[in-house]
Amino acid sequence: MIGIIGAMEEEISKLKEIMENKELNKIAGMEFVKGEIRGRQVTVVRSGIGKVNAAACTQILVDRFGVDIVINTGIAGSLKNEINIGDIVLSTDTVIHDMNVEGFGYKRGQVPRMDVFAFPTDDKLRSIAKEICEKELIDISVFEGRVLSGDIFVSDRATKEDLKKTFDGYCTEMEGAAIAQVAYLNDIRVLIVRAISDKADDSASMDYAEFERKAIENCVKLTTKLIETIDAPHYCQ
């Protein structure tokens, strides 16, 4: 079973429209829609915004729907000059950038007593997604790199530069690292897919509304093709 998480309804509504044999389950204030996309068994859900919502949503997918793969699709702010609005970032790993326990000797971003600093994502899923991007989304660029998450909408240059310098992140958003952390704890495969909707600087509020729609379109196209391509039962063995 593949779980698809989007933080906002706009990020998953198109996926739900193309689903067949839909079954709705309401759990913890979230609507989990189980069904088929392109012949694959999937559960699609809007988690809500922020790390707590995202983590709760992911654990429900594991416990109640038995997912083996989680794809988190959505939008993000670019942290690198070469990554432009509309481009896609595929996660190599994720870091919670607003985790700070430096007072106890931990590196900034480190979750205390966890055995990893950055939560890994799946290499094979990322490879498949990259190939799809290069074939299907030829008018944009695709990047592979670290996704940063925090309960902050980054919209100023000072914060952007700090995140770049500290974590070498490719983009910043508010859910991916929490999803990847839960996937890590449950030993399931995960990929964070982010379409760039703004540059995470002083232009963010100006760019966001204008470019959000196109960024979501790119994410939906990639996610749909990724579902088609993954041989989920074989892949999860």
SSE blueprint:
Blueprint lengths: L1 E5 L2 H9 L2 E8 L2 E8 L2 E7 L4 H15 L3 E10 L9 E9 L22 E2 L2 H14 L5 E8 L7 H11 L3 E3 L2 H11 L2 E10 L5 H26 L2 H4 L2
Parallel strand pairs: 1-4, 1-5, 5-10, 6-8, 8-9
Antiparallel strand pairs: 2-3, 3-4, 5-9, 6-7, 6-10
Helix pairs in contact: 1-6, 2-5, 3-6
Structural commentary:
- The termini are close together.
- The longest helix is centred in the last third of the chain and has 26 residues, at 204-229.
- By secondary structure, the protein is an alpha/beta fold.
- The chain has a single domain, classed as Rossmann fold.
- 38% of the residues lie in helices and 30% in strands.
- The chain has a 5-stranded mixed β-barrel.
- It has helices spanning 9-17, 51-65, 123-136, 157-167, 176-186, 204-229, 232-235; strands at residues 2-6, 20-27, 30-37, 40-46, 69-78, 88-96, 119-120, 142-149, 171-173, 189-198.
- The model is unreliable at 232-237 (pLDDT under 50).
Widest sheet: strand ordering: 5-9-8-6-10
Q: Look up the CATH topology.
A: Rossmann fold
DSSP summary, beta strand count = 10
Determine and state the CATH class.
Alpha Beta
Number of domains: 1
Protein name: adenosylhomocysteine nucleosidase
Organism: Lachnoanaerobaculum umeaense
Pfam families: PNP_UDP_1
Pathway: Amino-acid biosynthesis; L-methionine biosynthesis via salvage pathway; S-methyl-5-thio-alpha-D-ribose 1-phosphate from S-methyl-5'-thioadenosine (hydrolase route): step 1/2
